[in-house]
Amino acid sequence: MEPPSASPRAGRGPWQELLLSLLTFWNPLTTAQVTVESVPPNAAEGKDVLLRVHNLPGDTASLAWFRGETVAPVHQIVLYVVDTRVITPGPAYSGREIIYPSGSLLFQNITLNDTGSYILQIINRKFETALVRGQLRLHKPSITSNNSSPVENADSVVLMCEAQTQSTSCLWSVNSKSLPDSPRLELSLDNRTLTVHGVTRNDTGPYECETRNPVSADHSDPFTLNVLYSSYHQGANLSLSCRTASNPPAQYSWLINGRPQPSTQELFIPNITANDIKTCSKGLSLSPILGPCSPNSRGERHSLTAA
């Protein structure tokens, strides 16, 4: 990396004030060859990232970096005047940015808040101005699921650790601890996929995955399963209702372990027993019979357990 030629200096002189006044009154400078490249393209949190400027015009008078999508004084990170080599930090300067004579901007010890768009303002000696945009991206693994609302004792859930690079190892944790030794938890050969067989309410999580390579390690945000279940006492009355928006009105059919039940919108089971609970947990399903104008109607399943 190229060393900076000067240190940031507080205050702003008439020359800097003049440059800022040109933010809203400028003529376009031809910068077709000027580009900004992020090095590396996707960095890990806590590392350094350089927004490298290529093909800076030789008649550049000043350079200024801004955070976000708009060029405004409040968003200015730093201003560099070429002739005097004076560096002036702006309101958006965090103390971790270094500007180089080439216009490149170094971010030290990046955080998630550093990600996003940046604008480099270039002013030449004719006071013509151009804007060049750059992007800073932070590599962070994430967890996705094949089932957003699994039913207790009925569904299995597949959790996937999504990472932008494949040349990393993956470690899983649940409730901030290593995965327990359980036959219901199955890892793929590359550890990127975790399958929870026969999910229960105790499997909600939170889950985290960590990706590692020889130089860094990155954690995903916690992921919590939304496990559906209902709890009933023996002897209670159970009432289930199925509703759907359709025109013409939908007809409803109920099945318990494959056995048809009354074709009504509500299913009532009085004085439920332990056997009823077990049966419903394994085999209760409901579905509206779709009319020709109700393609979005859908059935649901319930899992019942004894309290």
From TrEMBL:
One of its GO terms (biological process) is regulation of immune system process. It comes from the Eukaryota. Residues 141-226, 234-280 form the Ig-like domain. Keywords: Glycoprotein, Immunoglobulin domain, Signal. SMART domains: IG. Gene3D superfamilies: Immunoglobulins. GO terms for molecular function: protein tyrosine kinase binding. Belongs to the immunoglobulin superfamily. CEA family. This is Ig-like domain-containing protein. It comes from Canis lupus dingo (dingo).
